[in-house]
Amino acid sequence: MHSDDIHRLELTPLADRSWRLCDSSVAGTDATSVVAYVELHDDGVYEVVWVSVGIGSARFLTLESLFRAALRLLEQSVSFGPFKPSPIPHRPPAHA
Description:
This is 2-isopropylmalate synthase LeuA allosteric (dimerisation) domain-containing protein. With 96 residues, the chain is α+β, with helices and mostly antiparallel strands. The protein has one helix at residues 63-80, and strands at 9-15, 18-23, 34-40, 46-50, 57-60. The chain has one domain (3-79). Strands 1-2-3-4-5 form a five-stranded antiparallel sheet, with helices on one face. The longest helix has 18 residues, at 63-80.
């Protein structure tokens, strides 16, 4: 991970204490540009729900640790490459 990579991530405000974490290297019109939704709780912890990378949610004490985790997930998703969809088993049409 390069130190400059962190600059490709942007926080876009949604409300007073919630943001959308976006990857600026992806077109804003592409849904995969949204990496996660972030919310700041009263206890100072950032809760993240991963959207285009990773699965589930995580909690972070600092924005820096959140950004670094997001970059790791982005790197992993690139290394996996595109997935071939699973084939749907063929069923013959029902005869009346």
